[in-house]
Amino acid sequence: MAEKAPKKRKPMIGLQPEGDVDWSTYRGVLVVVEQRGGRAKPVSWQLLGQASRLAAKLEAPVMALVMGSNVSHLAQEAIYRGADRVYLCDSPELENYRTRPYSRVCLHVIRTYKPEIVLMGATYTGRDLAGAIATHLPTGLTADSTQLEVDDERLLLASRPAFSEKMLATILCKQFKPQMATARAGVFEALPRDESRTGEIIPVPPQIKPEDIAVEVLEFLEATGKVNLEDADVIVAGGRGLGGPAGFRLLEELAAELGGVVGASRAAVDLGWISHDHQVGQTGTTVRPKLYFAIGISGAVQHVVGMQNSTYIVAINKDPQAPIFKIANYGIVGDLFHIVPAITETLRRRKA
Ligand code: FAD
């Protein structure tokens, strides 16, 4: 009796690209650099740092895709930040982000240059763009990753919190390429900027068709009142120890002197003392500022995971046993209502 040929594993219905695809031709890790007005989002450089680590394991190149208008300086910057090869699409039509024109360029670059991994920031723009292109390719996408590794079979292990952040799920995309993930800002470390690095810049023509321009952007208005923790160099964060919303006024004054913004623990947010966009931690924002003040915050693990990568951590707490002191570079034991105004006043006097 003739031996039965092994069954070919079929991907999910409707998602299979036409014909046999040789996935082994896909090589390299591509980071889509997000910018607004010619300024890159820090998450893009953080992802280039992680892409370099992954690419070193894969022995593959690090690629970056820069799209926008008057953004050629970002292509060079991407090389200083770890890219070996940069695809640059510089066109007035790409001045403002719009899903279809940006997707068109992304799809062209991915189909032409075939990276095995594509990474974007889990920002509003990154989430929109990644979802749009993943459905067109078609391939899998892990959103909002907090860990990115590769295994011996070149598979991307993208981990993200799941089930109300109680578990960490590791998601693999075994059947398609590229393997795509968006990742949270502040989780990965950017490489030190190195102006001696060299790389190749490959111009990409805009692939935009008239039907892609379905939306005209008339004006960009920055949302007011929302705090931008991700990009802040200094964060002055407060917790339940502040005793009420009035305590946050003290933090605002200190933050103003330091040119920083105000963060908060979940306890303070849940008590309604400050809005959720200020929350740092597992279910808030992951931050990586140069200076982080933890004031009246005990240092619960769910808070610490969101700020432990700050360059310097200063903790102010009246309890010398508070766990926050274990990760603080500088600890001040005492009553925050005396210490915080004293620091603010000292800074004011120095400036005067
Ligand atoms: P507390 O733990 O009550 O600490 C208050 C601190 O203030 C104490 O250490 C106290 O000694 C000090 N203090 C009091 N008065 C003074 C004073 N006058 N001067 C100086 N110090 C003073 N938490 C987050 O922060 N972010 C998250 O994203 C987050 N996600 C979570 C997700 C899940 C699934 C779960 C279960 C929990 C999460 N938490 C999160 C909650 C976390 O476990 C803690 O409950 C929370 O971080 C505690 O906030 P806190 O430190 O402000 O309050």
Task: Tell me what the structure shows.
- With 352 residues, the chain is an alpha/beta fold.
- Helix content is 27%, strand content 23%.
- The strands form four sheets. The protein has a seven-stranded parallel β-sheet with strand order 7-11-6-1-4-5-12, with helices on both faces.
- The longest helix has 17 residues, at 42-58.
- Flavin-adenine dinucleotide (FAD) binds at residues 164-166, 239-241, 265-268, 279-284, 296-298, 300, 302-303, 306, 316-319, 322, 335-337.
Set down the secondary structure blueprint.
Elements: E1 29-33, E2 35-36, E3 39-40, H1 42-58, E4 62-68, H2 72-80, E5 85-90, H3 99-113, E6 117-121, H4 124-136, E7 141-145, E8 147-150, E9 156-162, E10 167-171, E11 179-183, E12 200-203, E13 234-238, H5 247-258, E14 261-264, H6 266-270, E15 291-295, H7 301-304, E16 312-317, H8 324-327, E17 330-333, H9 336-351
Parallel strand pairs: 1-4, 1-6, 4-5, 5-12, 6-11, 7-11, 13-14, 13-15, 15-16, 16-17
Antiparallel strand pairs: 2-3, 8-9, 9-10
Helix pairs in contact: 3-4, 5-9
Bound molecules: flavin-adenine dinucleotide (FAD).
The site of flavin-adenine dinucleotide has 31 residues, from α6, α7, β16 and α9.
Strand order of the largest sheet: 7-11-6-1-4-5-12
Record field, number of beta strands: 17
Low-confidence stretches: 5-14
Q: Note the total helix count.
A: 9
Average pLDDT for all residues: 92
What is the first-to-last residue Cα distance?
95 Å
Bound molecules: flavin-adenine dinucleotide
Main beta-sheet strand count, sense and barrel state: 7 strands, parallel
* Oligomeric state, counting identical vs distinct chains: single chain
Radius of gyration: 23 Å
Provide the helix percentage. 25-40%
Helix vs. strand class = alpha/beta
Strand content: 15-25%
Could you say which overall geometry the principal axes of the C-alpha atoms support? globular
Topology as a string of helices (H) and strands (E): EEEHEHEHEHEEEEEEEHEHEHEHEH
Domain Electron transfer flavoprotein alpha/beta-subunit N-terminal: 29-217
Organism: Kyrpidia tusciae (strain DSM 2912 / NBRC 15312 / T2)
Pfam families: ETF, ETF_alpha
Family: Belongs to the ETF alpha-subunit/FixB family.
